[in-house]
Specification:
- The chain is α/β, with parallel strands linked by helices and about 375 residues long.
- It has 14 helices and ten strands.
- The chain has a single domain, classed as Aldolase class I (TIM Barrel, Alpha-Beta Barrel).
- Strands 6-5-4-3-2-1-7-8 form an eight-stranded mixed β-sheet, covered by helices on one side.
- Helix 7 runs parallel beside helix 8 and helix 8 packs parallel to helix 13.
- It is globular, with a radius of gyration of 20 Å.
- The C terminus is likely disordered.
Amino acid sequence: MKFALSLSHNCNLACKYCYSGNSRKDDMSIDTARKIVNFAKEKTLPAQKIEFGFFGGEPLLRFDLICDIIGYIRRKFADIDTKGNLRISITTNGTLLDQAMLDFFRSEQIDLCISIDGGEAVHNLNRCYKNGKGSFGQVTTNLKKAIAQLDYLQVNAVYAPDTIDALPQTVSYLAGLDIPVIHLNPDICCQWNEEACQKLPAIYMRLAEDYIESFRKGNEIALNLIDSKLVIFLKKGYAAEDKCSMGEAEWGFAPSGNIYPCERLIGEDNQKNLCMGNIHTGFDPARRCTILKQKGNANQECFHCELKDYCMNWCGCTNYYMTGKANLVGAMLCKSERAAINAARYVFTTLTDETNELFIDHLMQYLHVGSNYKE
């Protein structure tokens, strides 16, 4: 079960792509946050694993709330916390990270994800302060401190048609910082034209070549574009529990307390057709049922595709942003998934044929944790 709390609509940056909107300035209250935790307790079975994720806006603007609510979560879920079934994560733009925060995250074993889109030119293209100044300098300064001090760290790099050509350089730069897990995610809100989509197979294959070379040189790398598919190869396709669980095992909460089936669908918190009630006034089961009926994949061509078992065509929020419907796959996702599957298959075949022991150990790590890959 995953419960994602958007702690604030506020942000100290003005990124050109922003999933949280910029018209609202609300913060989540401690009363709202605690009611969400209580709601999570009601929805979670004793043996279930549970994750709380903090998002924004910029969540570190509410570090006071983070400290308070993590303590409340620990008390509420003490029974599963001691069994290692509780995970807490924070996704931040990294600009506000200071030593007190790092100390707290380390002591509380928080999984931190910092957004950085690549080297200076690429990052500053979209991730700027409100005065137009790029945020790269502050982000990298804080990122290096986090790498040195935290046991677990991820980075998230967003790419779009205007930065897709630089993706191999982005991965090379981030890998050079010794970041343990690199996530690459497309901007799902922008218009991906045919020219940009046509570039994906060659660029993903370049990433695959670089990935292979890294393992040949004895440098382990975890790259979601490749590793997420490797896990699915090991599992021989996506299982039912791997697929989109929006509104069932995944919940997003706006600062207002409005309940959404995924944190990426909160946006400006004004989409009534996606709202499933409010934590203060009550959960709406009927609205939830309506939303759940919209899940899945209605593309007829997908049913006969040879890659359908390995394709993420079922992601409701990605489909919604790309096509306006949670069950309708966009052209970009189709091309991206096909390219990623082929790139990962090339990696798998090449490195296993070479009996690359580091790569085999890398795969075994996923098997030992139940073939789960942290998305």
